[in-house]
């Protein structure tokens, strides 16, 4: 899977979905806009509904509920993770990143534009709060 860099300060959810779907940020943003989803809407990084809708539109399904993060080894092969989880004015916020396990490797794709590399393996530095497993529609995994 290839990383997609977010083109907006608050576009981590769109970028994570773009990486899963294998499309550009511009394409994912256009699909999001057609669904009434915008990176400027704080719901995109304080709720899961819009990311789920965007995934579904692009042929993927997120798990029905978030699951608490316990360990990297317990994650499914593809998962959206909530890191940098915090509360502002009584509302939770986080940064979306994508965990990938493939070909005997595991890594996190982080869309933040200011990172030296979008592929992260510094698992001890990231503190996921919870995750959503992601599968292609019709897949049994």
Characterization of this structure:
- This protein is α+β, with helices and mostly antiparallel strands.
- It has one domain (12-136): Cathepsin B, Chain A (Alpha-Beta Complex).
- Helices cover 21% and strands 30% of the residues.
- Strands 1, 2, 3, 4, 5, 6 and 7 form a seven-stranded antiparallel beta sheet that branches.
- Helix 1 packs across helix 2 (25-34).
- It starts with 11 loop residues before the first helix and ends in a 5-residue tail after the last strand.
- The mean pLDDT is 93.
Topology:
Layout: H1 12-21, H2 25-34, H3 49-57, E1 60-62, E2 67-68, E3 78-88, E4 91-102, E5 105-109, E6 119-120, E7 130-136
Q: What top-tier CATH class fits best?
A: Alpha Beta
Give, in order, the helices and strands.
Answer: HHHEEEEEEE
Q: How would a crystallographer describe the biggest sheet? A: 7 strands, antiparallel
- Beta fraction of the residues? 25-35%
Seen as an oligomer or otherwise, the chain set is: single chain
Number of helices: 3
Helix content: 10-25%
Unreliable stretches (pLDDT < 50, length at least 5) are: none
Distance between the termini: 17 Å
The name CATH uses for the topology is Cathepsin B, Chain A
Number of domain modules: 1
At CATH's second level, what is the architecture?
A: Alpha-Beta Complex
Shape: globular
Provide the residue-averaged pLDDT.
Answer: 93
Q: What class would the helix/strand composition place it in?
A: alpha+beta
* SS elements, strand count: 7
Radius of gyration: 14 Å
